[in-house]
Amino acid sequence: xxxxxxxxxxxxxxxxxxxxxxxxxxxxxxxxxxxxxxxxxxxxxxxxxxxxxxxxxxxxxxxxxxxxxxxxxxxxxxxxxxxxxxxxxxxxxxxxxxxxxxxxxxxxxxxxxxxxxxxxxxxxxxxxxxxxxxxxxxxxxxxxxxxxxxxxxxxxxxxxxxxxxxxxxxxxxxxxxxxxxxxxxxxxxxxxxxxxxxxxxxxxxxxxxxxx
Length: 212
Hints:
Elements: H1 29-32, E1 38-46, E2 50-57, E3 66-67, E4 73-75, E5 89-92, E6 95-100, E7 114-115, E8 124-129, E9 132-137, E10 148-151, H2 153-158, E11 186-187, E12 194-195, H3 198-211
Parallel strand pairs: 7-10, 8-10
Antiparallel strand pairs: 1-2, 3-9, 4-6, 5-6, 8-9, 11-12
C-alpha cells in the first residue's frame, strides 16, 4: 500500500482496495473483418452469457455478390461445432480438411453466417473454388435481412449433404419443369454434370484438376 508503505496480501484494511482501471475491449479479428454494409445482431443469449449472432444487411446487396474466402484453420478434426452454422471442408494437397474456427480470432466474419433451414430463407450459396470456400448471393438482399447460407449443388455432394436449390432468374421464357431437377445451363465437359452458375462449374472443374 503506497499510503502506509506495507506489503499486503490482498487489500489494505486501513486504506481499502485499489481502484481498478480496465483495458479497453478490442474487437476480435472476425468482427473487425465485417464489411461496412453488414452488421452483427444478438439473436439469443444462452447459458454462460454465450451470444448467438446473425449477420444482417444494412443496405441492398445485389445478386451475384461474392464474399470470401472463408478464413479458418485447416484441421482433420472439427474442434468447434455449432448446429446453426455450416460445416465446411476443402481439398488441399489431395487431403480433405475442415475449416475450423474454435474462436473469433481464428476466422473472419463469415463464421457468424447461419445456415438456411429452407429454400425461402436462403440468400447465400457456399462453394469451393481452388481450395477456398466462398459465399455468393443468389438473390438481392434487402436491408435488415439476415444472410443465411447453404451448400451449392456440387459442394453439397462433396460434403455428403442434401442440396437446396435456388430458382435462377432469367430474361428468357422458362422451360417446362423437369421432375424435381432445376434447369442448369452449365455442363461439365469431363463428367457431364450440370450447374446453375458458371462459378459452380469452375469450382467443380477445380476438383477435377485436384484429383488428376
